[in-house]
Structures are given as C-alpha cells and as structure tokens.
Amino acid sequence: MLGNSFGRLFRVTTCGESYGKGEGSGLAVIVDGVPAGLKITEEYIQKELDKRKPGVGKLNSPRLETDKCTIFAGIGQDRITTGAPLGIIIYNVDTQDVHIQQYREYKDIFRPGHATYPFFLKYGEFQDWCGAGRSSGRETVARVAGGAVAKFILEREGIEVIAYTKECMGIIAKDMSFEEIKKNYMRNEINCPDLETGEKMEKKVLEIKEEGDTAGGIIEAIVHNIPPGIGEPVFDKLSATIAHAVCSIGAVKGIEFGAGFNVARMKGSENNDQPYITKEGKIRFKTNNAGGFLGGMSDGEDIIVRVAVKPTPTISIEQTSINMKNMKEKKLKPITRRDPTLLARIYVVVESMMAIAVLDGIYMARAYDAMTKLDEKWLNLKK
Amino acid sequence: MLGNSFGRLFRVTTCGESYGKGEGSGLAVIVDGVPAGLKITEEYIQKELDKRKPGVGKLNSPRLETDKCTIFAGIGQDRITTGAPLGIIIYNVDTQDVHIQQYREYKDIFRPGHATYPFFLKYGEFQDWCGAGRSSGRETVARVAGGAVAKFILEREGIEVIAYTKECMGIIAKDMSFEEIKKNYMRNEINCPDLETGEKMEKKVLEIKEEGDTAGGIIEAIVHNIPPGIGEPVFDKLSATIAHAVCSIGAVKGIEFGAGFNVARMKGSENNDQPYITKEGKIRFKTNNAGGFLGGMSDGEDIIVRVAVKPTPTISIEQTSINMKNMKEKKLKPITRRDPTLLARIYVVVESMMAIAVLDGIYMARAYDAMTKLDEKWLNLKK
Amino acid sequence: MLGNSFGRLFRVTTCGESYGKGEGSGLAVIVDGVPAGLKITEEYIQKELDKRKPGVGKLNSPRLETDKCTIFAGIGQDRITTGAPLGIIIYNVDTQDVHIQQYREYKDIFRPGHATYPFFLKYGEFQDWCGAGRSSGRETVARVAGGAVAKFILEREGIEVIAYTKECMGIIAKDMSFEEIKKNYMRNEINCPDLETGEKMEKKVLEIKEEGDTAGGIIEAIVHNIPPGIGEPVFDKLSATIAHAVCSIGAVKGIEFGAGFNVARMKGSENNDQPYITKEGKIRFKTNNAGGFLGGMSDGEDIIVRVAVKPTPTISIEQTSINMKNMKEKKLKPITRRDPTLLARIYVVVESMMAIAVLDGIYMARAYDAMTKLDEKWLNLKK
Amino acid sequence: MLGNSFGRLFRVTTCGESYGKGEGSGLAVIVDGVPAGLKITEEYIQKELDKRKPGVGKLNSPRLETDKCTIFAGIGQDRITTGAPLGIIIYNVDTQDVHIQQYREYKDIFRPGHATYPFFLKYGEFQDWCGAGRSSGRETVARVAGGAVAKFILEREGIEVIAYTKECMGIIAKDMSFEEIKKNYMRNEINCPDLETGEKMEKKVLEIKEEGDTAGGIIEAIVHNIPPGIGEPVFDKLSATIAHAVCSIGAVKGIEFGAGFNVARMKGSENNDQPYITKEGKIRFKTNNAGGFLGGMSDGEDIIVRVAVKPTPTISIEQTSINMKNMKEKKLKPITRRDPTLLARIYVVVESMMAIAVLDGIYMARAYDAMTKLDEKWLNLKK
Fold this sequence. Notes:
Four copies of one chain form a homotetramer.
Chain A: E1 5-6, E2 11-15, E3 26-32, H1 42-51, E4 69-73, E5 86-91, H2 97-105, H3 116-123, H4 140-156, E6 160-168, E7 171-172, H5 178-184, H6 195-210, E8 217-224, H7 238-247, E9 252-257, H8 268-271, E10 275-277, E11 283-285, E12 293-294, E13 297-298, E14 303-309, E15 319-323, E16 328-332, H9 343-372, H10 376-381
Antiparallel strand pairs in A: 1-2, 2-3, 3-5, 4-5, 6-7, 6-8, 8-14, 9-14, 10-11, 12-13, 15-16
Helix pairs in contact in A: 1-4, 4-9, 7-9
C-alpha cells in the first residue's frame, strides 16, 4: 500500500485498521507542520473524535468503540507543542473474537459496494479481511484526529470549517446563514441545521432502516473567514486539493463548488460574481456562485462545497455475490450491524479533510510569500 | 508560484504563459516516467494539440495560435524514446503589440470570474497581467502535450480515454455506448456524439453568443478497458487523484463519479452494483452506479466521470469592476475576443488530465506489485 | 518542524522525543510500502533495537531505556502483514522527574556541539529542551525500527547491509572479507570485526573516557549482493539518496564511496574499475574503487561507504557557553551521563538508513521497470 | 527514468541530453518557487553557464558548445519575473554526424567508469548511447542554469556560494580567507585561489594529460553569510540535503563538512566549537570544525564542504571492456576528446547544487516560520 500521507507542509500520515490484533493495536496519525507553543489537548481532539463515534443513537451502527485518543509525541513537559510532529494514537477496543470469527468466514466473499474485490487483487489472500481493514470507515478516526489539529490552528486565526447534512433521500434543508447553521447543525442526529427538515430526514432514514436498507444524501461544507489568495494557480488550485482531500473519503461520489453542476445551465453574465468595495475598503462579491474561488484560489468569500454521499453499502437484504477464491457465485446473507446512513457520522470526516487541505493551502501561500520577500525580519535573522 | 507538477511516477511539470516576451518564448512540459523504446512522434502530439486550437470554427475565440510542438529532449538518434524525460515546447506566435497594449491598459482591473484578484494579492504589481498568465486557458496547451504522452502509453495497452459534451444549457445528450460515443464525438464543433442534440446545443450557444453572453455545460469522460485494482486505498484513491487532476482545470466547478449526486436519492440496495462472473471467468457488474470504482479503486468497469464547466467568464456585456491598485470601482467594457462556450475546447484538457491521473495510478499499482513480489525476473536481475 | 519522512516508495515517517510527558508517550514509525504476506515479528525488530540500546556495557551511556517495540498496525489476525502501513511504537520508560528537572535548569543554555541553538531560533522558548527532543540520539530508535523492516525485506532477496567500526582515534581495522566482517563485527563492544584492533580501540576509548572526554571514528557500511542498475541517473542517484539518508543521522560529518577522498590522488587509469565476464556469464569488476556505483547507480559489486562520526559532544569537562535567553556567557558544568563514543551504537543507525535508502531505490527501479513494460502479466490483469 | 526534479519549495526539473536529434533539440530547466519582481536576465545566467563551457583553455575538452540560454517562460512583458516558473532552454549545437557515427559504433560497449552498463540494464537497447545521454557531463548545463536562479536570489540577501579547487593529485592549496578566495579563484584555469599552488596543479594535470591519463582532486565549497537555523532537524537536515544535492553530481565520490573525516581522530573537547557573543550581540564560534552546522542546521558560521572528484573516466589509454549485447570481452581504444581533469568545470556545478539546496532550505525554514506564526500581516490579509 502507498499513499498514506496527505498534505505538503501541513501533512498527516496515518496507519491502523478497524480490528485489533491483540493488546496495544490501534490507529495513529503523525502530524507534521505543527507550530510550537500551542496548547492542543487530548480533550480538544476527543471532542472531534466523539462526533464520529459509533454506537450512539438510532442512526448509528451498534458497534462499540470508545475511540479514546492519546497524544504520545510532539508536546513538551508543560504539555505545549514543541514544533515537533504530533503523534496521536487511538487504541482498538472492539477485538471480540466473535466478530473476528464472522469476518473470517466471509473473508473471500465479494461484498457489493465494498473494497474487497480490489483488495483481493492487490494484496491477495493476505488482504485485511477483518472489518474492511484500511477501507473501513474506522480508518477515518485517524483523519479526524489529524483534522482536529488543523481545526485548532485554523480557529486561532478565526477560520471555521463546518459540514452538515444538506439533503437526504430527496429531502432538502432550506438555505440558512453561516451563523444559523453553526448554531443548529449539531442539535439533531442527522446534523441538519434546519431542524424541522432534519426531523423529516431522520424519519425517512428510520423507515428505510426498517426495510433493511440504507440512505444516501448530500453534505455541504463551509469554510468561513478564509483569507483571499490561498491556492496555487496551476495543478494545486485550492479547489483541486480540496477535491482530492474530500474524494479520498470512502463513500464520496462527487464534489461541487458554489453553483456547482448548476453552471451547466447558466450564462456567463449570470454566473460571474460581481465585485464591490466594502465600507472597510475590502473587495467582496454580490453573489457567491463561485463558491469562494477565482481561478481555483480563494477570493475571500466563504468556501462552499457540496459532497455526494452514497448509501451505506452494507445492507440487511440478501445480495448476490462471488467467492473470489474459487470464483463461484454465492449469496451474501443480510448483515444487521450497520449504519442506516453515513450522513450522521461522515460530516466530521468531511470537516477534517477540508480543514487539512485548507490549512495546508494557507501554509503554502504563506510559505511562498515569506520565502520570496526580503523583509526586515529576515535581514535581522542573519545575525 | 508553486505546484507546477502533477503525478508521482508519471509526472508532468509545466511552465509558460499565454503571451510571449519576444523571440523564443513558449510553453513547455517535462514528462518524467516515460518508457524507453516508444515511437512517440510530434505528429501524434500535434493531433491532440489541434483538438484545443483556438481560431477554428464558430464556437471558438478568433485568436490565432498555431500551437506547433517540438520534442526537444528524451528521444534518441533514431527518434525513439530513451527512457529519459521528454521535453516538449510549443512556441508562442500571437505576440502582437496591439493585444499586449490592450492588456496593459487593463492590468490593474479586476475581471469578474477571472483569477486577476488572487494574482494581484499573491504576486503584486508584478503579476502576469498579459493574457491571464498561468491562469489563461492557454496554460492547458502544456497539459495536453503531456496528456498526449499519457494517452500514447495507455493506448499501447488498449486503454482509451475520451471526453465529450453531455449537456449544454439544459440540452442533454442521450445515453450511448462507448463505441458510438467514440465514433461520433468529434463530428461536430461542440463534441457531442448525439449529433441531433449537438446541433441543438450549437444553435443555443450561437444564440447566447449573439447576446454577447456565454454558455456552461457538462463534459462526461470515460476511461475504457482499465484493469481493476488501480488506486491506493486511503488518501490516493484513484477517484481522489482524478478529482484533483480534473478540478485543477480552470472553469471546472464540480466532478461526480457514476451515479454521482444522484446517490443522494438512492437506497443501498439500488446503488450497490451486483457482481457476476462472465463466461471468460472474469468479475463484472450488472450496473455501473459506482462509475468504475470500489473503495476508490478501479473495479474493471468503465470509469465514468462528469465534470461541470462554467460559462466563459469573458463576456461582451459591460460589468462592474474594480481597479485593484487604487481600489476604486470601475466599469469593465464588453470584450469581443472570447470563446462563447468552453465545451468545444476543454474536453481535450479533461481527456489529458484523466489520462495523466490514470496512467500515474497504473504506474503506482504496478510499482507496488513489482516492488513487493519476489519473482524469477528479479532474482535473475541479480547477476 | 518539517521533514519527518524519508523515502519515496518505501517510506518511513517518524515522531517522538527522548523524554516522555507522562503515561503512554513514546516514539513511533509508520512504514509505507510494505508487501503483504510477510511474517515480520516484534522479535525481529527488537533484535535490531537492542543493538543500539543504551545502558549496556562500558562504552555506553548509563541511561536506562528498555526500548520495547509494539507493532500496533499493519498486520492481520494471523500476524502477517496485510500490505497496509506498519505502525510501530516504542514507549518511553525513563521519565524520572529528577532528569527532567536537570534539563529544565539548563533549558536556555547553549550546549556546544548540540542542536540547542538552532532549536531556540526555530521554535523559541517552546523548543523541546528536555533530552534534546528530536535532535536526541534517541530519535534514531524510530529509524532503527523502520530500518528493521527494510532489512527484513532485503534479506528475503539475499541482500545484506552491515556497518562496523573501521577506525577510531587513528586506530584502523585491517581489510577483511565481507564474510569475515559479518562473522565478527558483533563480537566486541565497539563493533570492530578485526578483534585485535578492536581491543586497542576500546582501550583507547576508555582512556579518553577517563579524561572526561569522548572519541570520534569511522564507520564502514557494506551492502552485499545488491543487483546492478539500482538508482536513478540524475538527481536521485543511489549514491545521492544514500548520502542524504546517512548524513541525516546526527554526528555524521562526512560520507565517501569506495576509494572516496583518495580519488583526489588517483589517475583515471588507476581509478577506473575494469570489467570482466565471470564463468556464469555475469559482468563483474577487477577492483571496486567505485564502491559499487557507476553513474551513481549500482554496478553489482558490493556498495562500500565510509562515514565520519564525530566524538560525542556531551563531555565531562567544563565548557564556555551562553544563556540564549539573556544572551550572557555562562560556564557549562561537566556532564557525567554520556556515551564515551558513538561508534558502539550508531552503526545500527547507519545500517538502518542504508537499508531504507537501498530498498527504496530497489523499489523505484522495479517500479520503473514494471510500469514501462508491457508483459503478459499486465495484459492478464485486464480481465 | 525518474528523479529529474530536485528541491521542495525551490525546485528545479530538468531534461535534455548531450546530443541533439535535429533542429530544436536542447536541455531545459523549469524552476518553481521564483519570487515575482526580479530582474533575472539571460546575461546573468549566461555568465554562470560560461563557467562550465567546454572548448576553452588547455584543461578542457575541445568539444564545441556555445551553451547559449533563452528564458522562454516566467518573465513578464517588462522582462521581470511574474512569480510563474521560469523556463530556460539551451539549444544543442554540436550535432555533427561524424561524432554521432562514432558513438553508434560503440553503443553496446561498456565504457569503464561510465554509466553505460546500468543504462543498458535499465533501458535496454533503447538507452541513449550517444554522448552518455542523461549521464553526460552536459546534463549539468541545466543544473547550472537553475543554480544561477538560486544564486541570484541568494545574492539579494547577501548570501554567496563559491566552490574552488582545494587539492589536485596531492597538491594542496593553502588556507585562505573567504574574501581572498573569492577574489582569486577565477583567475586561473583550475580555479585555485592560491595562485602559486594552482600553477603547480595545472602543470601536474598537463603532465598527466600527456600520458593520456586524467587527474582527480578535491573541490571546497563555501556558503558565506547564511543565517542560522536553516535545515529541518530530522531527515531533512541542511547537511543531508546538501549531501544529496552534491552527491547527485556525476564523478563525486565523497562529501565532508568542516573537520570532516578528521573528526575520526578528534576528542569531543577538541571538536566542539565554543560559542561567544560578538560586540553586536550575536552568537558566533571560536572555531568552525562543524563546518557551519549544529544538529545538521546552519549555525551562522560559513558552511564549509569538501567534495571528492574522481579523475575523468574517459582516458586516452587502451582499456579492457565488454560488448554488453553479445557479452564478449573487447578492447576499448584510447579516446582523445576528453577533459584531463573535471576540476576546471565541475566547480560551478557544485556551486549550483549547493545554491539550490541552500535556497530550498531557507525557503523551508521561512515557510515553517511564516506558516506557524500569527502576526499582524496575516491578520491584515484577511480582508
């Protein structure tokens, strides 16, 4: 396997699987590019991890995982960051033999909508058949821990990243201000800030759950108060690195910025956002069809991204399948332990990957700026 | 500026702007990861470059550029690749002072929908104000030259990448087989293989052009005959690197895979593609809602991607604007030299970026496979 | 801090410091590019870690660290690698307040020969003043754990990497065959396979230790049985990436290949290694002045590298110093807990970094080979 | 081939070979990380290229190459950098069929001391047999063009990089101050600032040339006026990235820093450089055994590096060799067109690679600093 790192100057590297192999197993993230002098605590990170914790509420899988994090590296004796890379580990708890045994029985069985088939091709019989391995939703624990660090740094500068459920099975939340969304999006299980609509969504999901089925939806993510000029003009546009970050989350089937796919029906005169000068002398825009981007770089408006989330592939309905080892067709029995929708948990993963991509973009923009300007500070450094 | 390279093992690095600064100026791409022994000719690359050439037909900007390419490095005395990186240069031709003078007059003016504002913030008064610099559509010439190399290598293995116009201003092409699309998509100016619908699209675009306005649309791209198992399971899923590649093209406002945003209204039992075994003993799927991906890795079905393309921001209608230097509002006069839609040219850039991302993914998958297996071949190498 | 990863396809990312911050702190390495199906055990890695363990013997610091490793990720239920990145953690044990308190007293004091001054400039008062942080010798624990994985994979293919003491304070080991070196280099504390000379070296070091001083020396490293053709021809020559890897070890002040600095006094006719054909029909060389490299790529002879190791900077003699906070000169008291020479421990770090660089180079060579050749195997994959 | 880029934030990517394939062939470099607003001219770059030009003087190969450079991208209409990557091309001139024909005859012949054997293994019969391809000394033209850009930026900040001949065939230049070296090192053909000794070196080289042989030597490089704190503490120590950069130059067989291999005979109390405070209140050192590094990071003293350069492998003496295609031994005839020593040309390549590595290190240090500090400037950017 390759590609277990993301980011250039703010960089997360992760490892770990969903099921432990005895004592001490877990998921970890090494975070490079952390400033010295920050009081990032385990409590802060835990709060983020708890947002994606299974076993809570009616929309989540009944699986038990405490997901308790430990910062094992990068903080000094006074528990303040030293500038060294942070090491964060989350130990596995659910290592019950009964579940492992179930997985073992099905280890060569193709599971529709899952990564088992490519895993089998790539890693052969040694593929991690237990709990989907690195393609498990549990892999995202390490992303959220890394994302929490990114969020902490962004918050210091007044930049906020939130993601909430915009749509579920055709039920669409009304448009709301950033402040309203922020205030309300954590108040129901499905993370929809339009509380009335959220109630309908939850009802719908529970109906579908009753059928043994699962539900898809759309997450909208907002980056609030980002400065303009972030992103590189060619291959590493901020929009492109955000797309990379977000589409690397399992179950994501699309991403759009601002007006998104609606631009297919818009004229240039409708789509162009007209700029104006604020009373404070800043450039802002009358509309935000661009979703906060010009030429793929931030333009000072909120970044608005919508993400298509497929219904959980694990369903409680019998499916046709294949034994990949003997290449015989085989029925896959209904599976009962599952999330009826991913919306209630994936939002924090979207927040995390957005935060990582945005902070990394900010770092790159500042790097270029600092590295290419001759100012007093650098002249002074030369003592 | 940073981020002028894309790819890990198959890697393009580009430079160059839309307007020349005297004799010898141009755009170039250095392509690393080229096999030895290939007969990649300038003619082959030229054919791809001609697909995006302006000044041809009624849907294109009247700007004159011959875009003639020269391979200046990487081929041996017998004009066969040596394994060394290819160097390809395309000289600038349109260096008429009259156009440069026009740009100079507007150099501090914010152009709605363009990258001028972030450029001004990042590079100050030294920003390349002439013809949009690295954010010009002309920057894609180097991508297409690099993409041509990728396509050449993919074709050797029977893998094809095509992109065509699926939708324009609400007019939607009917569903067609890969073979039909391939046969027809180059037969009209708007690159729509559904020829009847293409005619309607062209008519619509010309009407909009008459208004001084521009039109948006949707490009669909297909990767045909790709082997399963390509892509890394975590951050570098093939879907994620394709999203990065495609969203790095200016004017792209969204990407979706297979059923894409429709998954928001689908149940798991509807969305999961059911596998079966072909007569030849291979695994295939009854549907392709996944767009060719499982866990972000290829599953052997065609990769299907749809890309939202915004209407050309340059319009022949007066717009409000700002002089960024003195921060005063200013009217921007109508601009006459422009593409009424980007659809007729951007498709080949989408093909190119898809080809680069896919080939790079194939290289990574093979690299992992080769590097981790002890076979006869490597043992023999140890002589 | 940046740059906590090394390698391209075989890639280690590390974190962790020498002193713990309470329960659970430690050093970790995430290893990417691990084949599936290997039985890499904690015992195997432990054996390597034990080679650099302090507190053993008269040439080592009396500091107590058990350096026990745990593989917490990347192995399946049957304790065989799955292809996922390995996660290895080594918990800190020596977290006694008495030592931490000592470091706190000296936290703003410049320690000659140590990294404290640049750390202070880079991370300010938040720098990790306790036990030298990421610039501590203890940082190499994670390198050795990662290097153990590389060695395991290399051994599978019959490639061996060893490093031993060639010279110490003017006392030079005689030339010996690879087999003799391998048999004897672990038989004394200073890791010199010429046992008689090793005895003299140890005696010399103990004399210097008595003076409160420390001793420098030269480590020679050999890569045995490496196939020819490894390394990229331009910036990533194998010799260059080995130089990067080895010079990234603290205390290393130089590296040379084969005849090394002696080439300054050699003519071309003396230095050129003449090739011949073996009975088995392979190309070998009559001499190995090149140290196993042609054009920076391996040529099939053993790779021979010599590494200059400075005397431990921590000495038991009073030194002038500076309080960096108030910029006043200050005497630094003799420090008693130290290694009288680094030679007895650093050799395994050299082995580790060599193994990582060599394996990564082999991976890259195979990657290029696999990715650029159309063979049966890949054609079959396209089912 | 892979690995044709060097650097992280200041990054050069090169292509091109020693022999042209008809009109328009050449060597090029794309330089990423260039500040906007610089007046880097072709004349400035040309001056550096001329330092390595063959065909000048008695110590150089008689080969004719004008090495005239063209900046084809990255500068604006006013010939000032725009922040976009620079593209620099140097066209091939010596494309005479007579030389190509000579190379063709010998294309399968192993040339002792050259890269032909690994090239044959890696690229097979398609390897660039003409003029050594990417392993030719001519490949360094592109490095020098990229290095010129790095030097230009460093000079702006008062940082100078020079490299000169310290030793040749046992004849050693006396120690001199930076100012004296700078004043004199370009005043003789062998680039030795100790003019009297330089005369002896040149005489020695000419004697050896008469024998049909070639001479090795040592280049010393100095980075003057570099600020302290440059380099990352772990894998990307400045010393390590300089080692990578310099050892990637063909013919380099070793590198040492400051006291270098002499540390093998030094005690800690001798080797440690003692710090003091200057009248201006800065930290400096009484000695510079460390060669300007503490913990691999710059300490404010001049960086001192010595580089072992092997004698030119091409000699005018018959050598044994092998036809790699039919694996038969074969005599290699004396070759007359060659450099009797590389010292007279390689120094500028060392300067270039040092400049690139140092500037890239400075960029990384500033990047980390800028990206991790909350200052007024960034708060103001958020308008």
